[in-house]
Amino acid sequence: MRLDKLLKPKSIAIIGASEKAGFGGDTTRNFFRFTKKSEKVYLVHPKYDTVLGHKCWHSLDEIDDTIDLTVICTNQKTVIPLLEQASRKGCHAAVVFASGYGETGAEGKALQKELIDKCAELDIALMGPNCAGFANYVDDIFLFAFETEERERKGNIGMISQSGQIVLAGLDLPGIKFSYVISSGNSANVTVEDYIEFLVNDPDTKVVAAYYEGVKKPDVLERALRKAAQIRKPVIILKTGRSAKSKELASSHTGSLAGSDGAFRALLKKYGVIEAEDLEELFAHAKMFSALSEYPKGERFVFMNVSGGEAGVTADLADMSGITLADLSDETKEELKKMLPSYATVNNPLDMTASLGYDSDKLAAAFRYLFKDPGVDSICLGYTITPEIWDTTVDYMVEAIQMVSNDADRKPIFWLPFIEHTRHPKSAQILEECRVPLLFTGKYGLKSLKKLMDFLKFEYEDTPASLPEKPFGKKTRVYTEYESKMFLAERGVPVVPQEIALTAEEAAEAAERIGYPIVLKINSKDIMHKSNVGGVKLNLMNADEVKEAFESIISSGRKHCPDADIQGVLVAHMLKSGVEVIVGVKNDPQFGPMIMAGLGGVFVEIFKDVQTALAPITKKQAMDMIRALKGFPLLDGYRGAEKLNVDALSDFLVAVSDVAAQEKHVIKEMDINPVLVTKEGVEMADALLISYEEEE
Amino acid sequence: MRLDKLLKPKSIAIIGASEKAGFGGDTTRNFFRFTKKSEKVYLVHPKYDTVLGHKCWHSLDEIDDTIDLTVICTNQKTVIPLLEQASRKGCHAAVVFASGYGETGAEGKALQKELIDKCAELDIALMGPNCAGFANYVDDIFLFAFETEERERKGNIGMISQSGQIVLAGLDLPGIKFSYVISSGNSANVTVEDYIEFLVNDPDTKVVAAYYEGVKKPDVLERALRKAAQIRKPVIILKTGRSAKSKELASSHTGSLAGSDGAFRALLKKYGVIEAEDLEELFAHAKMFSALSEYPKGERFVFMNVSGGEAGVTADLADMSGITLADLSDETKEELKKMLPSYATVNNPLDMTASLGYDSDKLAAAFRYLFKDPGVDSICLGYTITPEIWDTTVDYMVEAIQMVSNDADRKPIFWLPFIEHTRHPKSAQILEECRVPLLFTGKYGLKSLKKLMDFLKFEYEDTPASLPEKPFGKKTRVYTEYESKMFLAERGVPVVPQEIALTAEEAAEAAERIGYPIVLKINSKDIMHKSNVGGVKLNLMNADEVKEAFESIISSGRKHCPDADIQGVLVAHMLKSGVEVIVGVKNDPQFGPMIMAGLGGVFVEIFKDVQTALAPITKKQAMDMIRALKGFPLLDGYRGAEKLNVDALSDFLVAVSDVAAQEKHVIKEMDINPVLVTKEGVEMADALLISYEEEE
């Protein structure tokens, strides 16, 4: 993939260049409108000698130059011949606007396959088809087909969207600036993952923002996100398909398959990727990261408001959003008190009152006390900028910001509006010049701050995910409890002693070896719910009880399940009671095995209190998962009870996740339920493995 | 309170009228700028003969007319003499801008008291002090002191805010229109509740929106909200003080005490009031209700998008927000299919594609199929309006909306933008003319739809809340279990037989009367945790066991609590085991008793799975509370278990809530924990009452 030829071409041919409406005309017009240096562009149209006053070639063959990128504005039928022609000019990249491919029916899908095969044959990196082009603001190349306002947009956000409409909406947001915007369309050849990887590696891109319908190259995505985590470049992803309905839609939209959402999100979490829930969030977070000149050193914010009402609203918003309020030092409080009216209280959020809000010198001095206060990491000014007040009140605050702008100990300053008032272009620009991110409104703005805190707290541990290397087998096999446990035991997961006994005598002998109390369970691959058929006998204390239980289990099993293949009973040591935990493994066809942990019974079933992560996990990740359970207090000395062995539980999770990763082509899913957690450690009480079987 | 004189004055005096900056100048200038009919306004200033070309009187005494409203723009010291002067002119209302009252220290609070007393003496309804005035768009009276843009704002939202800053931010929102805007400042005399009541009763106000720091007149609020529920007028309230921090701030801001938040919210819930979580929500919901010409008949939405990407985002947003997607009828699907390209799928959210999105006739026809479909209640067009596309793409959609505008079976149509672009004044206006609410962006917009659905589903049952009629006593008393249960039993709540026995012999006799199995519990007001001191003996089966248990309890009690006053034991029938429920009562000094219900133990303590409501509750409310518990499945036949008697539990809640309401000056708090719910019914296993005692 020559993404450099696609996104950073030295020479470009626009095929179908024209002055008319449509892709050819719009692209050519936009190109000359937005691209200042346009030496190496060749317009091509069989009928024109000039277009918009620029020379026009009648065909690619006439051009006596190497073409890096061919932009094909003409219809679908012309595409393959044009690619062949371009290839003869040394071309390794193309943009295809035409639709009628994978987003349509069976015929379109066949055409798309033909197109991809041709790209492979010619070694061409292709954007689209069914896309709206891209803009490279770094090298001043504008090949985006839709109409936008004229405005300076060169910046540091690298943005990718399958939908051109969404790129357009981003381009027209006031105060947001880009290194690249890419509308990837059907992403048939170069995919969203390829662009993400390009932007993660691109030194001119500070923040990557992607709108995403379905993952096509999980391995590229994993590699790109891992790299981003290593170099700590923020990546913000909005993926539709969280709801069942949107998953259904994604498969009909640009013809891509929405991957398993749980595994996708686990991947984002693993690499500290910032997930956006809607478009407004995608741009809110991107803009904040883009405008931030340095990261806060910690999580503690001071909020400053001009109105006491807005201070109250801020306090509630911060609380809802999980933002930490700084405790001001006594010295800071004292100094602020001196600047405020006698009756005012120094609080956080702070109601600055007119004394501070309308006095730049005082406000700058207040900032400086906050810079000095070791308990403060960031400042957030909260003020709704109506068009009328920009030139009056806001001025004082901006002036104060400017006064402290070059202070050596300056801390990050943010600006939060409470009501959206046009995202005022002038304020966006002035605040940007002061290195103050103008947050989006209300909850969106606070969410951005929370995402920043999460990003700063994230500690990447360098353990690559364990993606499948080939498709999973289609046949599956259900393991018995005994087999499931043996599978784990053979791979290093601690399992309590267990044996299979085919006769009452064997059961009693096994019990003697294992030690009382004993539990017997029916052993049959055909019987899933052993208790329901009288297949479990607990707390057996001697050989006679074991023998009697054996006979009872076998006869009850035969009676209830006459067709089941019963292979004696499982003899095991009866476990001490403990808190029940469920541990599970689920394998995702795109991202591989996920490990799941939750508290047993109603906690999982009614409260959905479950944590998941891509396998393998580290000890730290295991501890994080356990502590993130709402029911964690039940393991941690609830109501004066003894603390249970959470350390052993985390080791157990790590061991299971290692098996899941090693055996990623074998394990389809696994339930270890329950795992009993006690003060001493953990013991597995039951296990069920479903494996993929190789096709014969 | 003559709110008519304050808000709908027939004659107005502006004291301190001037051409200079400041309250006097700003108010006068704004008045003439925004008020068209200004016959009955009298400008007053001792030094001027004219102000802004209008006649100016030197004092109120010179004016030969009755003055309904006096607007005092001068400083604090002048206020009381001016009120006295005004009163002599028959004045019953005043606006006071001056600050330095309750929002400041002790001195200011004293001045505020003096001011209120004077208002009472003179029968003057006073707005403020420390306010920014108001505008009455219905009668064309503009007395708001802050600078705003010139624009038509007459509409149907009645808005109140303690903060003038917030009123200003609302006034400058594009596309939002008001009947009244009121900045109530310190709300020392006429309070936010009085204004809410005025607006609820005002025929020109369709929607009431209030920003609120603390409740001063709970009874007026309760009465106003009850009225609103009866006449089904939407009231939207943002109250700060949800977080501990903002509660702290509210008490310092305009000097009002933030009431108990739980009880306040229970009041809102009781009367179906729409609660906003931040300012953007307050205006988002108000604007939607204001623009809606008729309510949807049900909850089922069809979303229509121009881009497949935005359709996916909408599906996720709808899912997150709890919005119901309509299932289209086969006929509708078939008709839509005909209008779409062959490969397109008819889904909800629907990707209209260019075929529908860029063709007004087709889109109007599509709307009409949706109007006919009995499974559809509302349509929501989702489209991000960038300034550039307003005049192109959007036109088609607006034209289609206009085409169906007078259809007899028209259903409500909404418009949802995904990225905030200007809240574009032109689009706001055109869509308003089409009776299409332009929602706020993304999550805020969907939240408005959800609030609308909640509003439409709300069924008010005419049971007034039970507010305290006098302050609670300061002394409290702790009742023993026996006393607590007797308190309830005497007031009609079913209690299982119990007796107090002072000797082992008495205990055995009581046990015979009550019937075995029996439980004994130590009876002492000084011992709260009976089990911890060996004070409970369960499951006693005969007289000997009872006697032995009695001796053991008493001696153990004496040993552990040598100073406790032990009054024998409580003898009761041992209850059958059941699911444990906690029922509680908590009395709020502003809103009276709240009843609380939750599942026992970890459910309440770890998962905070609790429902609350103001007492008394109806049977329906009790059932709603129970069903709203996350753990409700545990009562409702979880995992094939028998369904428990939820009906009896709801009766029990109603009975307890009735006692709580009757005894609102007696019960401070009460825990009935646990209540055991079985298939047969409910039984109270323990109870603890803390009462207020009358001061001697």
From TrEMBL, chains A, B:
Cited PROSITE patterns: ATP_GRASP (PS50975)
Keyword tags: ATP-binding, Ligase, Nucleotide-binding
Residues in ATP-grasp domain copies: 485-521
InterPro entries per record: Acyl-CoA_Synth/Transferase, ATP-grasp, ATP_grasp_subdomain_1, CoA-bd, Ligase_CoA_dom, NAD(P)-bd_dom_sf, Succ_CoA_lig_flav_dom, Succinyl-CoA_synth-like
SMART domains: CoA_binding
GO molecular function: ligase activity
Pfam families recorded: ATP-grasp_5, CoA_binding_2, Ligase_CoA_2, Succ_CoA_lig
Presence of the UniProt keyword Metal-binding in the record: no
Listed name of the protein: Acetate--CoA ligase family protein
Organism: Ruminococcus turbiniformis
